[in-house]
Amino acid sequence: MANNSNMSKRAALHRQQEMDERNKKARRITIGSIVVLAIVAVVVIAVVAVQALTNPKGVTADQQTPAAGTDGYGVLIQGKQPSDDLPHLVIWEDYLCPYCGLAEQTYGQTVKQLVADGKMTAEIRTTFFLDGQRTNGPSRKAAMAAAAAAGVGKFDEYHAALYADQAAEAVGFPESELRDRFARAAGIEGDDLKKFQELYDTGAFTDWIEAANDRFFADQISGTPTYLVGDEKLPITSGTIPTDADGFLAAVEELAAQQ
Description:
Layout: H1 2-37, H2 39-54, E1 74-76, E2 88-93, H3 98-116, E3 121-126, H4 138-151, H5 155-164, H6 175-185, H7 190-201, H8 206-218, E4 226-229, E5 232-234, H9 245-257
Parallel strand pairs: 2-3
Antiparallel strand pairs: 1-3, 2-4, 4-5
């Protein structure tokens, strides 16, 4: 029964990814037409947006970096640093991406187990491309909250809490849940809760999450979820990657050997 369930999840992930690609193509055609017809308006809006983001209201000048942060603007799972003798996995996510939630259900525990067992290392990199033109949309707010949780040493737990009760893409997480309910679910309490909320409210990781989002586009990542070993993509949406620890590790090591 467990194998059938895992196969079903992989198949569902594959089908949903295919549907997403078709929808993305349709959106690109529509968006391209709008840009051609309104190029002047887009330029004006872009200039205004850049000026607004230069000094966002309420954002602290005391910008921070997560203690478990990486040079690629990710956060290390369990804080375990990469080493030359272990394969390293990079996971790109958008917290409102439904396929990311399905991938987390399918492979999340396996990745955590392999990291805990010292057989590989991994990091989560966050984008908020699903926000589109919104400057502080729901995906960005979730990314900020996760970074704030990393600031109090609870990234893994907060990450798990977000996916355990993932919001619908079109709705997003209520601010009260990001600041309080998910924090408590992640075990953030007392002074740490106050610090977490302050980090979130003041945008203490604004530069960090913006840099990660910029990296997503600069590296031309095609979408989320994307699992990378080096520069190569682990084809989790193909339905061919095993969900058990040994099989998953073998697939990662095979890809790492090709680098």
